[in-house]
Structure formats: structure tokens, C-alpha cells
Amino acid sequence: MKRAILFWRITVGVVALALWQGLVSLKLLDPFFVSRPTDIARRIATWIASGTLWPHLIVTLEESLLGLVVGAALGIALGFVFARSPMVARVFDPYIKMLNAIPRVVLAPLFLLWFGLGIWSKVALAVTLVFFVMFFSTYQGVRDASQVLIDNVRMLGATERQLVRHVLVPSALTWIFSSLHTSLGFAMVGAVVGEYLGSTRGLGYVISQAEGTFDTTGVFAGMTILGVVVVIVSAGVTRLERWLLRWKKDER
Amino acid sequence: MAVGPHAFKKMLALELDRVSRHFVTPDGGTYRAIEDISLAVGAGAFVAIVGPSGCGKSTLLNVAAGLLPPSSGRVRVDGADLDGLNRRATYMFQQDALLPWKSVRDNVALGLTLAGVARAESLARADAWLARVGLTAFTTHYPAQLSGGMRKRVTMAQNWIIDRGLMLMDEPFSALDVHTRLRMETELLALWDEAGSASPVARPFQDRDRGAERAALQPSKRTVLFVTHDLDEAIALADEVVVLSAGPASHIVARHPVALDRPRDLMELRTTTAFVDLYRALWAVLREEVVKSQRQIVRGQPR
Q: Model-level pTM?
């Protein structure tokens, strides 16, 4: 089963790349607009060999990670507060919705103005994306906690704090983790969009420079690296999730 | 009953004094779940409450547990008015209430962990309880890996490890098949009988809410308030059977002592003449309430 999945995964990738390469070779697609897989691979190899890739990649990862950590911390904390006090939730409900509705691209120039061209404006952008995903899933996860479990633990003598620790947090973890994958992608998006709109370093900067010179190969190479990094980090999150939610194993 | 400073007057573990509980329905009306229920349960007694489905049995238990405040009337526990959660009671719920993310051992030890008992000690005592309910081989399993009957035994151990005088049980075995259920009932009675004779496992444990005064009364049988819709189970287990009317506005329609000898052999009990006579007498009362509740369901009234 596992091997079959791996086989088909690789097959899908190879076929897609071959199709792309083939269509360009047959002159059905213009490489000026879509580049071609071999060129992209060669470009990535050049970047890696010359070492020009690493500083950009590290900056983007740094911004994404900071955005993820800060956004998740704020989102989880506020999600808890909102879920535990209906009054706060009702009062702030329209404001949360309003803030969430703001397109982040609109915020980027403001953040550049407030936090400068360095990494913090990108971190801020990533935070605004990650926060809401984490906030809503924590809120939902805590609200979703089984009333019987809560009643039982209270009858067994739990204080409010113990209730949070033994029931609400573990119960919300499932939701938090399922959104962590989404958040991870969003954190990278936030960082790259921020870089794209104004910076001197990072993958977003690399992509925007390439676009400025109609270098489609450079654009695709940047996007490829971004995608690969997300897949690798996401696999790490899955492993962590599997360990933390090991009690669910036999239920599935 | 044990001897103690108050032994001269009748010790009451739980008193419900004209208790009613109403709920607001989604359309803004009032649903009267239980109405004007007065019930005194003596310390060490095993009282079963039976009634047709939807008669407010769970509401009654939730009020006794302090999970729901009564709309009117008073609840007294060991003679003192109940305010907030009932810290002298354990509650075994109808649904599964084990924490799915904790191992069997941690689930059993939970009450001790919450009370701040040292980890080594609480785990050792959890293991002793797991041995008592025959689950030593499953201490590191998670609840999802156990059968329904095993989960109920874990729940019993989880509740019995914290030594509290009053045990509230809400149809704890209703989800089990007949044979597992019979075994669980037997185990429950064995544990209950054992508590009266101060076995090494059920040795009294001073929980943070209990004073020295109660300690003087140890060891004593625990008081049980057992809710079920099954008259058969009620008679087999209890010292007294209380019949509730069909809802809404459930009230007590009959109280009947069960004068069957203890310890009881549940395998044989149900075919004895004494049991059958009791069953007939109580079924005559319960039958009418069941019929009423059926009629209401047919008419589509709220349960």
C-alpha cells in the first residue's frame, strides 16, 4: 500500500514534468513564458553550487518561523480566552471578522512603513495570516471538547486550571495540529509576499528580481524551492503530530 | 451502619428537599424536567431510581452532583447545604468519560493526580485498582484500544480510587451486552460490599475536602444512587427502588424497599420467588408510567 502510493506519487510528478518539457520541446509552449524543467533544475543547481541561494532561503525561513511561532502563540492564546468567556467572544466577534477580511496585500505597504524593510515587516505579515487560522481552530477545538469529559474531570476534583490542562488543551490539539499544516503554508506566503513587495533579501526578493527581468526560469526556480521547503517542513509537523496524538492511532 | 458521634440520629448522605429543575426550551418556553422531588438517602444505602426514558433521571443526578443547580428546593449532602459541585460524590456517566489521550493507568490515577498526590504513589494505587478490576495487562493501553466492558471497569476504578461517600451512577451499564452487564453488576456489588469491610485496596483515603469527623466513621459502606430504566437491574442491586413518573414534571410515584439478603448471587437471584414478587409489585407501578411516556412520544410531545 505504502509502496504503491510512493510509486504513483513519483509517477504523477515525472509525467507532469515530462509533459511540460515535451510541450516546450515540440514548440507548443513558448519557453519565454513558461521556461522548461531542465532549465529550472539547472538554475537551482547553479544557485546551490554558487551559494547564492542560502542567505535568501535562510532569511525567508527565519521570517516564516517567527511568523508561525508568534501567530500561533497569539492565536492559540486568544482562541482559548474567547472559547472560555462567551462575553468576550460576543463583544469582539464583529471586529475579528472585520480584521480577518482585510486582504493582506493591502497591509504589506503599511507594515513596510511601520516595521521597515527588514525581516519584521514580513514577520508581521505572516503573523496576520497565521493568527486567524490558529485562532479559529483553537476556538473551535476548545468549544468542541466533550461536555461529559469536562463534567467527569470536574467531578474527579479538577480545578479550572487542571480542566484546561487535562481536557481542553488535549482536546483542542487535534484541531490545532490540523491547522498547523495550513498555517505553515500561510507563514511562508506571508514572508514571501512581504519580501516580494519590498526587501533586499529572501526568496520573494529573488522571485521579484527575476520577474523584473522577464526571467521566468528564475521565477519558477524560486517557486520550486519554496514548494520543496514546505513539503519537508510539513513532513516534520506530521511526525510531531503522530507522536502527540498517538492515543488516536487505533481509533482510525 | 458504622458507629460514630452522630450514630444516634439517622445519618443522611443525601437529601433532596422539594427539588425542581426547569429548562428554557429553544422556542422560549419552559420545560419542567423534575418537579417537587423529596428524597432522603441514608448513609451506606444503595438506592435505585427507575423511570421511563425521558423522565428526568439524569437531571436528578446532575442536581445531586451539583452540575446543575436546582430551580427551586434544596440539596443537602451529609447534612450540609450543597453549594456548587458536590465534592463528596463520584459520578459514573452513561457515556464514556475516560480521557482518550491518557493511558488506562493515568485515567485511573487521575483523581489522585488532580488532588496533588505524588506521582509514584498514585500510579502504585492505580495499579492496585487495575489488578482489582482484572486489567493489569492493559495498564499502558489507551481507552480506544479496550472493549466497552473493559472501559466500564476502568471507569469504576477511576471513580473508586478517590474515596468519596456518595456514588452517583447514571445507567452506567446500559450500553453493554447482557452478559457483560451481569458481570459488571456483580463486580459493582462485590466492590460495594468490600468497602464495608475495609479491604486493603479500598483503604480509606483522606481527600482534601473531607474532614477528620468523617474519618471517624470509616470504614463504612458507600452510599449509591443508581439510575436505570431497567427495573430488573434496580431490584437486583438496590436496597430501595424509587419509581419516577413519566416526564415532563417528573415526580416520585413509589418507593419500595428491597428486602433481599446480601451478598446477592446475581446469577440466581432473578429466578427466586422473592425477586419475582417484588418485580410484579413494582412493575405494576412502573408500567403505567411507561405507557404514559409512550403515549407522549406518539403524540410528539417533548420528552
A: 0.76
